[in-house]
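Input (structure):
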């Protein structure tokens, strides 16, 4: 991959409405909200894009931010609509989302891949294919498959919430590095922070993720 990334759109996945604002499942929203705050951007509701849109400049890079208001299962409709309007390719977007397979406060970057059972990613990939950048914000795992649904739709305890918020802020700090020097440089910076997730069987993790809302 080239050093400079031509990312033009950053999408934060989450569920709209006051009931979901502080839930773990809205970590993607938290990321783009922090980008908007840092860039003095203002959110505008856009019905044709099924979400809220904001424009910011990070370093010398002009970015559009998007928060779909379609709930997780319909995220792809919103992303596809704005992508088509901006005449961008999927390779020009970064999608931020919560990740139960990563320890609380861990953050990881990747390009392409499967949806891992995350319903927001599942829908985005069904509309765009799998080749786009992802920012995975670790929210931890409840430990039991039947607890996943309620876990991601609840607010974390204050210490865990602070850890997730710190991870989001560190990810925002790394955005200029990602855009100007590429994925590997940003990965080296972000992946060296925090702690590694506790061992968890992959087959069980896949089963758990399929229970997400």
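Output (sequence):
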């Amino acid at each position: 991959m080239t050093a400079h990334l031509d990312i033009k759109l950053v999408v934060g996945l989450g569920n709209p409405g006051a009931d979901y604002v502080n839930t773990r499942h809205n970590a993607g929203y938290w990321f783009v909200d922090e980008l908007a705050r840092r860039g003095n951007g203002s959110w505008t509701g856009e019905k044709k894009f099924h979400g809220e849109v904001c424009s910011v400049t990070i370093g010398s890079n002009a970015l559009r931010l998007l928060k779909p208001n379609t709930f997780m299962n319909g995220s792809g409709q919103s992303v596809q609509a704005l992508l088509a309007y901006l005449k961008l390719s999927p390779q020009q977007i970064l999608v931020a989302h919560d990740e139960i397979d990563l320890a609380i406060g861990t953050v990881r970057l990747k390009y392409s891949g499967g949806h891992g059972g995350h319903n927001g990613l599942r829908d985005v990939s069904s509309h765009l294919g799998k080749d786009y950048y992802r920012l995975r914000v670790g929210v931890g795992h409840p430990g039991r498959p039947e607890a996943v649904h309620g876990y991601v739709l609840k607010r974390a305890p204050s210490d865990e919430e602070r850890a997730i918020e710190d991870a989001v802020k560190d990810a925002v700090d790394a955005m200029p590095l990602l855009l100007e020097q590429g994925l590997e440089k940003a990965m080296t910076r972000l992946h060296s922070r925090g702690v590694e997730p506790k061992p968890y069987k992959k087959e069980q993790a896949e089963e758990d993720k399929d229970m997400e809302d």
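Notes: The helical segments are 27-38, 75-86, 119-128, 148-152, 158-173, 175-181, 183-190, 202-209. Confidence is low (pLDDT under 50) at residues 197-213.
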